[in-house]
């Protein structure tokens, strides 16, 4: 009888294992889900705030004292609308999408992978990371995405601050910059970008993950609701962008220097010139009040979209496996 049971088990086990996805297949699906969710999250968030984003870049690129308050920034939006039309407020958004979709996909996917790696290293597999690894995972994810997609960010900045007659499309920007300023120009402002991404991505992911953990600990619910996710994401965006904003201004100045009549050779010299001409607060924090509106909205939408897409894709895969 025992032999008969063993025999039956041997027959049943291969059948069961044949229907269960292997670890490699599950990992591939997980990575693909993260990439798809991240791409959609970036696209939805950036399109929602594109007019404010374009104005912020124009605002940061000005070295004069005329644009010093958020009120003047919103006037700039209105003047752009009157002079160039409604859709001009989304000028450069195609370049933004070309950059943001791979950037967000890589960032969110990398964050999931770094969380898993750090969890294994620190012995937190299956559990929430402690604060320091949580910050490191976010910083590494942002740095990885920035390194791989930087030239696209440069192109988007150029399109945002120039009239449409100067650059007709994304390819035209690449060609003109390469011919007139050299290929190195595509990486101008790269160092302040990386220095800014480390606190920005680190603090953003850290804040969002921490708020979700605190919510789970105190509410007893495993998952926050969509409005709660939006709120947590907004807080993450506010903290992350405020911490890294001066480097964001420096990056934009260096990226747009070729078409704005300036030459900035290094981060420190750029900062010194901005402070000398415009002052510390009015120069390095120019447009920050607008970013306090734009940033939390964009980051809140981004994190929420990513989480909800992940949940949806997992449910779809689970129902498919059950049907099989």
Automatic annotation (TrEMBL):
<keyword id="KW-0999">Mitochondrion inner membrane</keyword>
<dbReference type="GO" id="GO:0055085">
    <property type="term" value="P:transmembrane transport"/>
</dbReference>
<dbReference type="InterPro" id="IPR018108">
    <property type="entry name" value="MCP_transmembrane"/>
</dbReference>
<dbReference type="InterPro" id="IPR002067">
    <property type="entry name" value="MCP"/>
</dbReference>
<dbReference type="Pfam" id="PF00153">
    <property type="entry name" value="Mito_carr"/>
</dbReference>
<keyword id="KW-0813">Transport</keyword>
<comment type="function">
    <text>Mitochondrial carrier mediating the transport of coenzyme A (CoA) in mitochondria in exchange for intramitochondrial (deoxy)adenine nucleotides and adenosine 3',5'-diphosphate.</text>
</comment>
<keyword id="KW-1133">Transmembrane helix</keyword>
<dbReference type="InterPro" id="IPR002167">
    <property type="entry name" value="GDC-like"/>
</dbReference>
<keyword id="KW-0677">Repeat</keyword>
<feature type="repeat" description="Solcar">
    <location>
        <begin position="129"/>
        <end position="214"/>
    </location>
</feature>
<dbReference type="GO" id="GO:0005743">
    <property type="term" value="C:mitochondrial inner membrane"/>
</dbReference>
<feature type="repeat" description="Solcar">
    <location>
        <begin position="224"/>
        <end position="312"/>
    </location>
</feature>
<dbReference type="InterPro" id="IPR023395">
    <property type="entry name" value="MCP_dom_sf"/>
</dbReference>
<feature type="repeat" description="Solcar">
    <location>
        <begin position="29"/>
        <end position="117"/>
    </location>
</feature>
<comment type="similarity">
    <text>Belongs to the mitochondrial carrier (TC 2.A.29) family.</text>
</comment>
<keyword id="KW-0812">Transmembrane</keyword>
<protein>
    <recommendedName>
        <fullName>Mitochondrial coenzyme A transporter SLC25A42</fullName>
    </recommendedName>
</protein>
<keyword id="KW-0472">Membrane</keyword>
<keyword id="KW-0496">Mitochondrion</keyword>
């Amino acid at each position: 009888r025992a032999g008969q049971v063993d025999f039956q088990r041997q027959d049943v086990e291969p059948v069961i294992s044949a229907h269960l996805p292997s670890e490699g297949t599950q990992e591939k699906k997980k990575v693909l889900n993260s990439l798809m969710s991240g791409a959609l999250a970036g696209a939805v968030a950036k399109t929602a705030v594109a007019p404010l984003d374009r104005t912020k870049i124009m605002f940061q690129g000005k070295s004069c004292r005329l644009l010093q308050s958020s009120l003047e920034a919103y006037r700039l939006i209105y003047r752009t609308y009157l002079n160039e039309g409604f859709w001009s407020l989304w000028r450069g958004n195609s370049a933004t999408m070309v950059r943001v979709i791979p950037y967000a996909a890589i960032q969110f996917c990398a964050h999931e992978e770094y969380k898993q790696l750090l969890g294994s290293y620190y012995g937190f597999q299956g559990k929430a990371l402690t604060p320091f690894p949580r910050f490191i995972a976010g910083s590494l994810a942002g740095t990885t995405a920035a390194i791989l997609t930087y030239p696209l960010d440069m192109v988007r900045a150029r399109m945002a601050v120039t009239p449409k007659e100067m650059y007709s499309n994304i390819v035209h920007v690449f060609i003109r910059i390469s011919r007139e300023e050299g290929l190195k120009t595509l990486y101008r402002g790269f160092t302040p970008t990386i220095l800014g991404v480390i606190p920005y991505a680190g603090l953003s992911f850290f804040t969002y993950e921490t708020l979700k953990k605190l919510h789970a600990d105190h509410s007893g619910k495993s998952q926050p609701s969509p409005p709660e996710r939006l709120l947590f994401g907004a807080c993450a965006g506010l903290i992350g962008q405020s911490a890294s904003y001066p480097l964001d201004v420096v990056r934009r100045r260096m990226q747009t220097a070729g078409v704005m009549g300036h030459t900035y050779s290094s981060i420190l010299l750029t900062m010194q010139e901005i402070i000398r001409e415009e002052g510390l607060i009015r120069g390095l924090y120019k447009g920050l009040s607008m970013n306090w509106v734009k940033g939390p909205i964009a980051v809140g939408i981004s994190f929420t979209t990513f989480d909800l897409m992940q949940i949806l894709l997992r449910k779809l895969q689970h129902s498919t496996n059950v049907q099989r």
